[in-house]
């Protein structure tokens, strides 16, 4: 199963110069757990719910006074749309993140999250089963040399 089959294509973005409060409002309004942070229209990081909580706790300042660029996680961890979900989950694990921005070249195309992987677990298992069945069937076939 490929990332492009399960990713969300509606990215919610926020400018790096915005306040964390504005980014949090976008998350709430769009019912998402993160915003992709842009700097001059170019993706520069990601601000997650956890980042918002950490910024509020660490600074003890109002969210309206904390710049997104100070609270966001950077650099942005990405994956291509044609990558397998296995590759995506390995990347999440190795980078210690729960969300990967999907990029086609340098253009953001969507986002894939651990929740997307969980939601598609049955399809992933089915695909693994089908691959294993195909591999077993191939090995049991005649080799074409007089069998």
From TrEMBL:
Keyword field: CBS domain
Pfam families per UniProt: CBS (PF00571)
Key word Glycoprotein present: no
The keyword Transmembrane helix is assigned to this record: no
InterPro entries attached to this UniProt entry: CBS_dom, CBS_dom_sf, Diverse_CBS-Domain
Domain CBS, chain residue ranges per copy: 7-65, 72-131
Membrane spanning residue stretches: none
PANTHER family: CBS DOMAIN-CONTAINING PROTEIN, CBS DOMAIN-CONTAINING PROTEIN CBSX3, MITOCHONDRIAL
Protein name: CBS domain-containing protein
Naturally occurring in which organism (per UniProt): Halorubrum tebenquichense DSM 14210
Source lineage: Archaea, Methanobacteriati, Methanobacteriota, Stenosarchaea group, Halobacteria
């Amino acid at each position: 199963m490929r990332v492009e089959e399960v990713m969300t294509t509606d990215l919610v973005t926020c400018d790096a110069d915005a306040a964390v409060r504005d980014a949090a409002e976008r998350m709430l309004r769009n019912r998402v757990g993160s915003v992709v942070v842009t700097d001059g229209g170019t993706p520069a990081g990601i601000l997650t719910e956890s980042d918002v909580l950490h910024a509020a706790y660490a600074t003890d300042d109002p969210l309206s006074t904390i710049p997104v660029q100070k609270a966001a996680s950077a650099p942005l961890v990405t994956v291509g749309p044609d990558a397998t979900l296995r590759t995506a989950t390995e990347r999440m694990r190795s980078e210690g993140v729960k969300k990967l921005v999907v990029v086609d070249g340098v253009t953001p195309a969507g986002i894939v999250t651990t929740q997307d992987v969980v939601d598609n677990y049955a399809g992933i298992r089915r695909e693994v089963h089908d691959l294993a069945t195909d591999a077993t069937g191939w090995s049991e076939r005649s080799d074409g040399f007089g069998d």
